[in-house]
Fold each of these.
Amino acid sequence: MFEDTWRTCSKSDSSGASNSGCESSKESSRSSTPVLDTDRTDRLRDKMRHRTESGDHWFSLEFFPPRTASGAVNLISRFDRMGSGGPLFIDVTWHPAGDPGSDKETSSMMIASTAVNYCGLESILHLTCCNQTKEKITGYLSKAKRLGLKNIMALRGDPMGADWEEEEAGFNYATDLVKHIRCEFDDYFDICVAGYPTGHPEAESYDEDLRHLKEKVDAGADFIITQLFFRADTFLKFVRDCRAIGITCPILPGIFPIQGYQSLRQLVKLSKLEVPEEIMQVIEPIKDNDAAIRNYGIEQAVSMCRVLLESGEVPGLHFYTLNREVATMEVLRQLGLWIEDPRRTLPWAVSAHPKRKVEDVRPIFWASRPKSYIYRTQDWDDFPNGRWGNSSSPAFGELNDYYLFYLKSKSSKDALLKMWGEELTSEQSVYEVFTSYITAQPNVAGHKVMCLPWNDDPLAPETNLLKDELDKVNRRGVLTINSQPSINGKPSSDPIVGWGPPGGYVFQKAYLEFFTSSENVTALLKVLKKYEPRVNYHIVNVHGQNTTNAHDMQPNAVTWGIFPGREIVQPTVVDPVSFLYWKDEAFALWIEQWAKLYEDESPSRMIIKYIHDNYFLVNLVDNDFPLDNCLWQVIDDMFELLDNPPEEQPAEQPAEQPNDEQSDKEQPGK
Amino acid sequence: MFEDTWRTCSKSDSSGASNSGCESSKESSRSSTPVLDTDRTDRLRDKMRHRTESGDHWFSLEFFPPRTASGAVNLISRFDRMGSGGPLFIDVTWHPAGDPGSDKETSSMMIASTAVNYCGLESILHLTCCNQTKEKITGYLSKAKRLGLKNIMALRGDPMGADWEEEEAGFNYATDLVKHIRCEFDDYFDICVAGYPTGHPEAESYDEDLRHLKEKVDAGADFIITQLFFRADTFLKFVRDCRAIGITCPILPGIFPIQGYQSLRQLVKLSKLEVPEEIMQVIEPIKDNDAAIRNYGIEQAVSMCRVLLESGEVPGLHFYTLNREVATMEVLRQLGLWIEDPRRTLPWAVSAHPKRKVEDVRPIFWASRPKSYIYRTQDWDDFPNGRWGNSSSPAFGELNDYYLFYLKSKSSKDALLKMWGEELTSEQSVYEVFTSYITAQPNVAGHKVMCLPWNDDPLAPETNLLKDELDKVNRRGVLTINSQPSINGKPSSDPIVGWGPPGGYVFQKAYLEFFTSSENVTALLKVLKKYEPRVNYHIVNVHGQNTTNAHDMQPNAVTWGIFPGREIVQPTVVDPVSFLYWKDEAFALWIEQWAKLYEDESPSRMIIKYIHDNYFLVNLVDNDFPLDNCLWQVIDDMFELLDNPPEEQPAEQPAEQPNDEQSDKEQPGK
């Protein structure tokens, strides 16, 4: 918070925002069928009101943009982890010196956009107006709107340099920015402003500062977040004083769990706040013991928050996280505000972009790469009807660049080499990497395999149910990258597989997706004839050679839910059209993430390249969801056929050999 | 067949159809998701080819338009019954003297349209061109296309009067009509023409007649149906002769089961056919014994059809039904062609109108009145997305006229009075009518109640499962008009509740809809509080006073199916918006069908009118489909509350009394 020079001006005259040139930018709302979560259609201020009226307590989290691209990748992982605890919103600070409105991975704008679009978090973008032209500010706001951001924290910001003076027609105060937003964008954005429980350090007086806060609210702000403070009484008095002069909007206390001696010192300097004597007395003696200070900080924050919540004046708490998670999460856990087992609205994370809120179906292929899916479909107009029918489908984004979430791993090259092998000696050594990942056992070099190119995270709890079977088949070169078990009507509240509103039932068809050799595919196709029409399959290689038994290329729903008073929800499909787009990405990951770890022409790289060039990507669906999953039996039958082939009939060439022209190519490492 | 003067001309020169002014009327095809029955998207000629290629035998049925409106109602019931046996198509003959292209209920055009739109039957409309202007013929064809008809039987027809002469620019031959259809409507219609196994009676020779048939096919006909014949050899020789001169299209034999002496005599006279001596020798001695003749006719038709089918030249049989069903059905049963247990594509009959083929969801309210539903939504543009959301919904057809299928009963006033009571003495006597209908037991006057205003047919087999419960509640004034049991994953092949393609599973939520008094509703609303959110309800009276616990007025899917390789199909919903349109119709049926049986101001009429004015229409859904249906328990709890009310609290007026202002009105018959 203090890093982004979050201040209002104390000067008395705060008019100046133009009221001319207003244009209404209200958007027509469009409703999807069925709406599972009424929150999804609400604005932040409405959600806040509903939660407050229901007597529910909630929390929000503040982050600042990282300095480096790898810092950005880590922060976004943190968004996912901290997002799972159920914050009402997060906010991202604005750093005028850091090109905050640019398209850089580390800009405030892109970090906030990522939180909304990829992590599905309701987000507030900070914006400072000091020393900015109206055109520039309008440009930032238009861009934010285009990216799906709906909430702005309107700040003055620090003057750049000591010789700053008020400009006649420019922005001198946060009030000017609030007025400008309302004028140019009507009621589109929810607007938040800053409050100072001890008065702004530059303000003439506490009362004068309160009057300026009232002006900001009167100009159109929807709620207030306060600067941090150290005593509950400070905040509670501030709220009383605000109410007394007619400020009626929500006022959220800014909570700062002390996390270390240095960061506290820096804070004191930047924010010109005084740390109370009783806190300094505790901290000074333990200033070299980080753990002790953090534990004290947690304890101090918890007890202060308890007083705030019990006062009845505080519906929610806003946390200055300093981009760290341990202390804030611990405070929230102790307060009982952290949602340990969040209810999922759909089996995948719903994007918070206003346009994507209505999205209600996705192909299963990107289940482990949702950010890539969102990136590739970001220009789609129509998500609720986002089918991929032959003629009606808008194209997927092209596979032509390397976006942050697209083909890069979040692990370093060194870490990847440790996990996936410094040196590969055969296809079998690739199989062993898959097996180590599945079983969570160390690989031959003693390192745990925490990710694969297709799976950036360890196995999901749901997939863990299949671990033994997955282990067995991966050892034999059925290299699984995605699977789900069948589910026949589990309650929507089930902690592992449940999703959607209470009182419902969720279902799944068993699904298995893997890479495997063309020899295996030849046997598999023979075996699959016994499983018609129970099992649907799609089999494709990198060249697009494609075999399927799908009806008319129709999508197959593999996850669905039945809920009280709703239509059926079917959020995950095996879609034949999108599979051919996924194929490009799935094969590219062999090369981009794995082969390129090794030197050109090295045996390791050639092994991965051979797999990329010759293996097939296979997906199987067992349609008979009430019965035991037969897909393992299909693979067993395939192995059985390979192990005990029927007597040779030399004159006959198997008709279903899908990759004949490749079969006599040299196979390295065999 | 002979009634519509179905003949081609034997004159040699059959040119004359204009080739100018052609316009393409190809329609863009639009695919729905998911397509359950690939047949639904095919043309008749494609279906015929698929069935023939598969080695399957099939049949079709010919009908003529009835003379009276009540005859039309009966014929349409026959369409439903005979349609259930699985004909590939039906055809409707054209009677130039009977205003065949008009909007009258009895016209050929309207009968064929009804078969397509309301009965979901693939249908061929006959059309004769003799003595017609091109404008008139084009007008008929345009109207047929507009009504959803896609197949035409192109005939010359009899000249009107003896002084007929060829017209220069008019239609003299069926060939002219075929050419005209292809010219004006491109490939839109499938065209059938007539063939004469013994030569046309007016033809110069058998060979000359064959050459004219070749001309008709060359002009664009897709297949041939023959005039009736009495010996299999006659037809098989005809087919050989057709093939010999290059006629390659399907040739369907016209089968006429002899059904009586008089109809056979009439046939002989009109068609100028000779009945073979071996048949006359059997028939003459039994000419006064109708049953014996019909049995002989069945036996003769079956043995001839067996020879035809075994020849390998005959993929399907076309039956001249004379609008009767017994003989034809018996022949088909003995041949094994009648489908005793037809597979339903969806739980309701799919309309065969090209525009409606993609329709995949309907409100449950019209389950027993599908024709009324189709009529009221006939002007909708968009059936597959036919949701009834608050803003997006097109209006239902207005309740402003009395169409054939709309508010009239197919029974006569006399029959209705016998079933529903010559004289009603109380509301209780109305309850007894409902109970008699449910239990299929005679009413107090000894008559079976075969229908109710809301149910034109006896109880469906599915509803029969609920008979005991329905009986119990109707006796106490819970007047049920629609219900379905819960189903938790029965195979799609289930003979009673199954629908959709094989290998799937069907599901239902329990549903119950009834009229009941405002006293009962007051108790019911108290009881329903215990069943939140398990039970959804909508309760409305004729004045539109409406109570519901539906989320945001969203539809609730109450029938759905899961199939191999498809998305989820959810064909039946409880839709809050459409319920308010259904309410108008459901209440109107009390007055239009029942009250109006009795004299103005008569006690019987006043009793029905009282119910109409004061009762509520209630629907209940039990969302917890895997558990036992709780809706009977809800009704039991309501009775329990009524029988044993909690102690009086005199000062308190029940808040949920929904119809308070009506409660002190005089109640006749109580």
Amino acid sequence: MINAILFDLSGVLYEGDTAIPGALQSVERVQASSLEIWFITNTSRKTRSKLLDDLRILGFKVNPDQVFTAVDAAKSWLQQRGLRPYCLVHENIQGEFSDFDQCDPNAVLMGDAAEAFSYNNLNRAFRLCLGGAPLVGVGYNRYFNSGSQLLLDAGPYIKAIEFAASVEATILGKPSAEFFHQALASTTAAADQALMVGDDVFGDVEGALNAGIQGCLVRTGKYQTGDECKIRGNFHTVESVVEAVELILGGNC
Amino acid sequence: MINAILFDLSGVLYEGDTAIPGALQSVERVQASSLEIWFITNTSRKTRSKLLDDLRILGFKVNPDQVFTAVDAAKSWLQQRGLRPYCLVHENIQGEFSDFDQCDPNAVLMGDAAEAFSYNNLNRAFRLCLGGAPLVGVGYNRYFNSGSQLLLDAGPYIKAIEFAASVEATILGKPSAEFFHQALASTTAAADQALMVGDDVFGDVEGALNAGIQGCLVRTGKYQTGDECKIRGNFHTVESVVEAVELILGGNC
């Protein structure tokens, strides 16, 4: 019995700047049902406000209070600890961290920085971490589908710094179980009554399963043939978010 | 009883363009002894000929036949298999791979590419590997001392692509046991009669131990306080190559 549904955004509801066929209607069907709904994303190429704008432009009617982002989680984590992060993040979201003292950093924050993942910037992150600065990752995603091609996400670069400095990053966002539980905390559903729908077999599906949440992998976005064989555990694999919603509303989850 | 000594180069015999104090005399002492001597390096920022030139300019008298490089090992590996590598390597050594057909690549070669580790180039490597191209690494070093600062080496970037594409790289060079054994094959010494002297606790010392070779860590080059606690096993830790040679020639190894 599913009481809450957690939707990943990029690759599930849209690819690049195009909605997945049927995604709008599927989200509306869930919104019209008794299910609780959440949108949870590791995206760190857009500000929260741009993310909400883009969803609206695509036609999704989303309550901003139901959007849970890894960038917000990372900001809170750093604020709570009074840290001065070196923010190796995309130029689009640098402004989200303007409240932080970034002089003489004592922490490293890594998101999906794209071209900002230069040799110089990664060396700076590495030397700070080797000197003891905690490493904070916005998600641990390996790659994503930009709409036209697969592109490296933050995960591989976080892995590189972890290896170089022999440290372990604190991951804010999926697949952190804490992140899933924070999203669920404002619903009435228990973990095993919630279903995560995502295109990332590791970040979305394996992460959800490890958090005690049910998982559903869609064959859109970054999905590659055989992804469903890369992890262990029981989960659904469906063509797209449309079939995922059919499954849930049909009581087959 | 040590019969052969394997010297790492950068960080052991020199740092940047300066010889480690006493290194010249120490190498000469070994050359005047009955010990067999090898120089083995993962350096992939210089051609073999530049490497030999730089050693000569610093004053080291080195027989080129006794210099064993990871770049050479990688070239042989690719040639033997008739592969067409995408060479993500330093611009200084691109010419070393001019004999390879690099159109429509079906393999990925990664060395210490420095600024060439751009987002675009890493995405290209990632997509080739995700599509099934074998990933070949020139060493797996985490970082090195450029003379003025620590800089990321090839290892973290290889790790990034391994993670992104869920593949395992074939490492040519240290710490591959095969590489150590190839170097030893042209000596009369058995593995346990050989000693590897290096500044990289993972690549040099742990690698040697895993290949059945004795290990000696020097506190020069990339060495950081506490490095000797990062691996398990019995090995020596000494101030520099001078003390390492004292130890060997004094019969204390």
Amino acid sequence: MSTTRLAVQAKAIELGKLAVRATTAAGSGHPTTALSLAHLVTVLMYRVMRWDPTQPAAPGSDRLVLSEGHAVPIIYAACADLGVTITPGGLARPMTLDDLMSLRDIHSPIDGHPNPVLGFPFFDAATGSLGQGLSVSAGLGGAARLDGIDKAIYCIIGDGESREGQIWEAMDFIADHALTNVVAIFNCNTLGQSDFVAAPEDWQHLKRKAEAFSWTAVAIDGHDPDAIEDTLRRHKELGAGKPLCICARTVKGWGVPSLGGMGHHGTPVPKTELEAVLAQLDLRAQELGVAHLDPAVMKDAFRIAPPLSAPEPPRAREPIGFAEAVRNEPKVAEAVAKNKVLSPRRAYGLALKALGAANPAVVALDADVKNSTYALDFALAFPDRYFEARIAEQNMVSAAAGLWAGRKLPFVSTFGRFLERACDQIEMALIGGANLKLDGSHVGVTLASDGPSQMALADVAFMRTFTHVRDHRGNPALTVLTPSDARSAYALVLAMAAFSSACYVRTVRGDLPILYDEGEQFPFGGHKVLRRAAAGTQRIVMAACGYMVHSCLKAADALSKQHRVEATVVDAYSLPLDSAPILALAGPGTTIVTVEDNYVGGLGSELAEAAASAGDEAPRVQALCVHNIPKSGRTPEDVLSYVHLSVEEIVAVAVKAAR
Amino acid sequence: MSTTRLAVQAKAIELGKLAVRATTAAGSGHPTTALSLAHLVTVLMYRVMRWDPTQPAAPGSDRLVLSEGHAVPIIYAACADLGVTITPGGLARPMTLDDLMSLRDIHSPIDGHPNPVLGFPFFDAATGSLGQGLSVSAGLGGAARLDGIDKAIYCIIGDGESREGQIWEAMDFIADHALTNVVAIFNCNTLGQSDFVAAPEDWQHLKRKAEAFSWTAVAIDGHDPDAIEDTLRRHKELGAGKPLCICARTVKGWGVPSLGGMGHHGTPVPKTELEAVLAQLDLRAQELGVAHLDPAVMKDAFRIAPPLSAPEPPRAREPIGFAEAVRNEPKVAEAVAKNKVLSPRRAYGLALKALGAANPAVVALDADVKNSTYALDFALAFPDRYFEARIAEQNMVSAAAGLWAGRKLPFVSTFGRFLERACDQIEMALIGGANLKLDGSHVGVTLASDGPSQMALADVAFMRTFTHVRDHRGNPALTVLTPSDARSAYALVLAMAAFSSACYVRTVRGDLPILYDEGEQFPFGGHKVLRRAAAGTQRIVMAACGYMVHSCLKAADALSKQHRVEATVVDAYSLPLDSAPILALAGPGTTIVTVEDNYVGGLGSELAEAAASAGDEAPRVQALCVHNIPKSGRTPEDVLSYVHLSVEEIVAVAVKAAR
């Protein structure tokens, strides 16, 4: 047996013992999964990866993405052993064994599952909700290729985890984009949480699946240091032009017979049994002849190669404004000049292209609807920076998180309805601090003819919840924007790019009259008063966003002409919203009518919550939104009537509410 | 050429023309996709499927699930031609050509994408958001097997659509459960919306993928009537013990050269070009020698075989109560007797098992966490009715919708956090009227040690939005329940089963004191006053749900002892909530403090919206919830402090708010 092989065995056992100790100290966690990865992680982190423990996030370093996040104690053990830099509270220092033993403590950056923003920059993204790491790796791989950095991205995935369809979306995406810098490693330990892993997820099937998904696949003994190292080092050669998938046969609870078999998932070793379990690992070390290895042998075996050099991030300049962007597109210019209308989604395309020209870090992804969202503008102008994600929204969002970790600024577009496919992925991206720019097109019922399967109606409620959560930057974890015209859409997309935390813009499909002048500013949290009620008459304040701003303007005309009610109309394009000024527009004892063509949980809730907490000093809030499941209609007006949001119905409500 | 073959060609062209006409009449839709399915749909609906056009939902009939819902005009055309029973407004009558031409009209049951509840019972589920139909088919297949009905479920999937990972989750699930009654048909027309279908989704790759996923796969010419019929009729023989996947090579815009190639997705033929396009199809009929086929030949070729007989649905009896369920489990009984505590999730398991014993239609699905959610109780007691879905939540939810369409009552459990993986699938199930019973376990921050990747915090905002949407039954499309103790959890799970629309129960992980007596009733929309403030002192009303009810009870004790503030504590376990009585408890000029350990958008929003619309007569609502992204902590209390929801912080807020 080579001394290197002996050293890896000794280190794997040492790390395994630390992982067991740490989970026992925490009183929870997954020691048996960690043990199944002891050799793979040792070979990766001590021998194969080119990186620098003092700069674990260096852009030129090889990356390790732990998709099966619950196995993280084995990586924490390695980082404690290596003194990898951690940044709790923003202060950089080497990780210690004490840090390791603080696993899952409320004051510790060593969280239950990987999360870079808590002070563990070794990781690129938060994982823990399964099936997302390979997509993150794809994004990292895409970014590395754009930057010309020849680094490798190693992704460890559980065999049971491979049941998540997103894994296969990522396999397709990586093959499509020929991201041979990504190496997928399936940890085939055959045991899930509640049962043995199903037959379709055994290593033989996984190998066949990977091959059918256009990868090269090999199976190895995941506890054989030589096989691991040889396969990892030769991954490009073995892949032969395709990305390489390694099916590593492993043992859950490796080295500890008493932890073998079912019934030991997510269960720490009780304190009373800890010494006996560690003794089994010591015994294993004796059997392997590595119980008392010369420290010099260990030191000699573990000389970590440094990161590659990485280029400086490119500088961005100011993007062109709306007027210039329109001028550059003769057909758009003609339509705007002629009818003074343009769809917000068309403005998204113009803005995205302008951002692409101004900032080389901007990349875009779309799910085979780029001709509808107008991400096509960007795809045509910057094909190298456009990643067609096909009809696979989950992978698209997690890949964007990976691109962000690779120093890119990713814009992600599809129908708003289909971003609901990726709610979990969006939440994981926000947990990990990814600065995503999401575009949901075709929002609301005015999509009309395609029916409710294509209409974003529940997106607002889900996305708004994150607007009231602070991220690690102190920003709203998400800012939600629903522009009412093309010029505000353009300005807001530019503002999204300039903001340091995640944003979601909702773009209406149809042409809408342009409401704003060139140069108008749209600060996040703000609103615009588009019409002010004349004094001395019956009055009402209406607040709306997107398409419904135009319905409210029409309603205001009708109110004035037919009912002698004067309306103030507010375009409340932003969530979170600075509500106080809008409440003050109406004043105590009056009623604000909010109008939005989505389900409950958006603008109406935002103002209602503000009013309810203010109490007597605030106006009533009467929220109009969608309260029945829509259906197809041939015109937006048909469907607006079906959901009781026609101009006539808005007028009727406003008349009753006016004072 | 056989007369049957000629008849199929003629009918395919006839249906194709109708589909083109219908989309032109609608002014939107997908005629070219429809044309690619003309022969497959003709052979299925006119020759192979055993069904009855006058009873399109008969439980003994073969089923057709159109996963690529946008192709639906070709099926509508067939249904109009056959006079299939439709039920607009609840009244049954045969579908006419006029109905077909009303496609996508607001008054028409012929919606843009398949949806049974609008009056089109031929379909079992709403489709249109891609990638879900094969999972629905799996549920239908599972239900048929349970009922001993030897019917077939044919599922048509787009080639581009196969990029959705959920398709591969379904492939695994169907193979795992040996559902050889499901036949997957990939419509390989090579053209997506914005680009050619990617190489990994061509028919050769799809065939290899299906084989790697343990299916038998064959490739056929999807416009060859004989090949289609032979393959469909012999699907069991060809499958040879495995489910059969048919990769049908088709032509998008078949029969109409001018609609070939890219650029014709989702684009109806303009009225001005309609006759020219129809003429191309007529020309195709002439070339094939079927332009003037003898009607007798057609009639002779199309004798549809009747449905199989299906057993009567079994009768349900009353399930046992909590006390008896506890007595039946000695370990649980001991813990309850000794400490008067039990976790709500444990009660879910007890209730699910009791329901299984009482109602043979109850089935359960879980995603490899059945030992955590306690669906294990059911899995052990009724293994035939338990469907282990493994780590694939999207397929699990859509398969449940299929089981419901197959006359079962499906209970779906996993961590509440991971149900967020299936937001889109949940919404599609609700659109299609599926009466799902969802259990989200381990909700809120008190899960503590595993960290935010496992905590359901945004689930409430998403799910609540549907509580304010009426479904076709006139019920809330979803009822959300967060019980605060095991007895209410048990009662609410039983009530879910008895309710005719979808429900979502959120079960806390930890043991909680039992608050209620045996026999207590928990009506949906209701609440419980657990403690009433004494008169004549400073007072406050606190409303909470789940774990936080206990925090509020502790806070009330502290308020009384340390601050001379008397608190009323309300358990508001239900959304939608009948808010008025709770607002009345506090009264005008006072403040209600709501407490929940999730992000914004739940109970606090519910009461705030009610208070804001009531105005002066209502109390203020101050909503406490989670406003920062949590992290791991070793105890629930640690994490509650981290998110500013400790008992001390609740007390501090209540003291300020009290009057």
